[in-house]
Write a structure and sequence with these properties.
The complex is a heterodimer of chains A (114) and B (110). By secondary structure, chain A is mostly beta strands. Helices cover 0% and strands 57% of the residues of chain A. In chain A, the strands form two sheets. In chain A, strands 2, 4, 5, 6, 9, 10 and 11 form a seven-stranded mixed beta sheet that branches. A four-stranded antiparallel beta sheet of chain A has the order 1-3-8-7, with no helix packed on it. Chain A is globular and about 40 Å long. In chain B, the strands form two sheets. In chain B, strands 2, 4, 5, 9, 10 and 11 form a six-stranded mixed beta sheet that branches. A five-stranded antiparallel beta sheet of chain B has the order 1-3-8-7-6, with no helix packed on it. By secondary structure, chain B is mainly β. In chain B, a hairpin with a 2-residue loop joins strand 6 and strand 7. The termini of chain B are far apart. At the A-B interface, strand 5 and strand 10 of A face strand 5, strand 9 and strand 10 of B.
């Protein structure tokens, strides 16, 4: 069966510090991968998605970046965090197909920028 | 107009009642529809998917799809306090991309 791992679970970082969040998927090949952010009490905001190694699409321009160095690894990064980067970061994966599949989310990282 | 719309709630129902959650979408070309449950502080969990018009039942959950009217609904029978959560509707768009609604907060009171 497929599993998705996301870490760390919580993170407190000072403004201006770098960020690296990692997500890995097991039990499947060539998944679509996604990074979402959810601000407190708000909906899901798609940040990046990837359909293959090295292929990254950005939905919202900001000071975050994403990389997919391996088929089942997705990394979210920032060189300098802003207060507005605080939120609940979620990685997700899906299969691909003509009708579309639901996403499976990781357990999330709660980031607080202070 | 938002692509996927849900009433933010809260929707309050007594324990044992039927909770009815609704979602409308704007893209007539959408083909797949999903309901997620998100407990406070947790990540969303997929609970139902539906691809064809009509009803799909899974235990206490029934998803209903009406493509002509562009709405999807989720019925929860015999609601329990443990069903209290935010329910997210998601609709596919091109390229296997899902668009999520803002979610409806459900409160089931004992």
């Amino acid at each position: 069966s497929q599993t998705i791992h996301q870490w760390p679970a919580t993170l407190v970082q000072p403004v201006g510090s770098p960020l690296s969040l990692e997500c890995t998927v097991e039990g499947t090949s060539n998944p679509n991968l996604y990074w979402y952010r959810q601000a407190a009490g708000r909906g899901l905001q798609l940040l990046f998605y990837s359909v293959g190694i090295g292929q990254i699409s950005s939905e919202v321009p900001q000071n975050l970046s994403a990389s997919r160095p391996q088929d089942r690894q997705f990394i979210l990064s920032s060189k300098k965090l802003l207060l507005s980067d605080s939120g609940f970061y979620l990685c997700a994966w899906s299969l691909t197909g003509p009708l579309g599949y639901g996403y499976t989310f990781g357990s999330g990282t709660r980031l607080t920028v202070v | 107009q938002k692509e996927v719309e849900q009433n933010s709630g809260p929707l309050s129902v007594p324990e044992g009642a039927i909770a009815s959650l609704n979602c409308t979408y704007s893209d007539r070309g959408s083909q797949s529809f999903f309901w997620y449950r998100q407990y406070s502080g947790k990540s969303p969990e997929l609970i139902m998917s539906i691809y064809s018009n009509g009803d799909k039942e899974d235990g206490r959950f029934t998803a209903q799809l009406n493509k002509a009217s562009q709405y999807v609904s989720l019925l929860i029978r015999d609601s329990q306090p443990s069903d209290s959560a935010t329910y997210l509707c998601a609709v596919n768009r091109a390229g296997n991309m899902l668009t999520f609604g803002g979610g409806t907060r459900l409160m089931v009171k004992p």
